[in-house]
């Protein structure tokens, strides 16, 4: 259940072997293989499945849940998925490695559910100097940590990073083995179980820095626009269903996330789900973090500066607002 910055580079070598088959000819109806993992902005797909909203919109979907977010990235890159819900950071990293991917929908922005949580006695990012921080290297929470350190005029050299998977990092923090942890919901709930602990930096401090999207392979978008449109329409219809049936929706999503309904409700403010109007605004070209093209350029520059990619990925054709614009939901 990790939200990593980069898919396995070796997986990209298999891209050339992953073309259409006779059963999946261009323009012919096909099953959409879509992946998602543990993040509040992606659990609405579970609601769509359980309420029959994919079928209602005329699309057959093979919805695959990944315990490991990394595996979902690899599955998309190797052609074992047609689409995946993933961060902009991950998509840029994959594209920089040669993947041909297209963002057709904004699921959400992280507005607090990615957090740097510190033990009692540490009240600011500046006070992390000389301390040990557990974080999964390459994740967006590693990215958040670097942003927070930069804002405090520190660098990664000023702390000791203990690389652990996100669930293990939260558990290590809870056990008192590290001074702080970078984690995302629902693992923030685990970390905050340490008495007196608190978030000293969150994604709310960096608006627009962690957007999450529905990403298709570029070939699938070209060959199966009807299915892509149906997926986008289903997203907006699902949000309407959730709004009309909040308690039932929370129960579905909390169960999938392995947390209580009460805990799931606490994630609401920290993940801003994007309806159609917010999507349209995000896809517009602009010069603020609210605009995807601006944010992509900022993230690309940061990824290079942090040494996470060798060069800035090409952005031409990355964003396709066609399907959001065509949706009437």
TrEMBL record:
Cite the Pfam families for this sequence. NMT1_2 (PF13379)
Would you identify the family this protein belongs to, as annotated?
Belongs to the bacterial solute-binding protein SsuA/TauA family.
Q: Which CDD domains match?
A: PBP2_SsuA_like_6
Signal peptide annotation: 1-25
- Native source organism of the sequence: Phytohabitans aurantiacus
The yes or no answer to whether the keyword Signal is present is yes
**Gene3D superfamilies attached here?**
Periplasmic binding protein-like II
Q: Which domain of life is it from?
A: Bacteria
Protein name per Swiss-Prot or TrEMBL:
Sulfonate ABC transporter substrate-binding protein
Query: Sorted alphabetically, which InterPro entries does this protein's record hold?
Result: ABC_SsuA_sub-bd
* Entry keyword Nucleotide-binding: no
- Return the PROSITE patterns for the record: PROKAR_LIPOPROTEIN
Which keywords does this Swiss-Prot/TrEMBL entry list? Signal
Its ancestry begins with: Bacteria, Bacillati, Actinomycetota, Actinomycetes, Micromonosporales
User: Where is the protein situated, by its record's location annotation?
Assistant: Periplasm
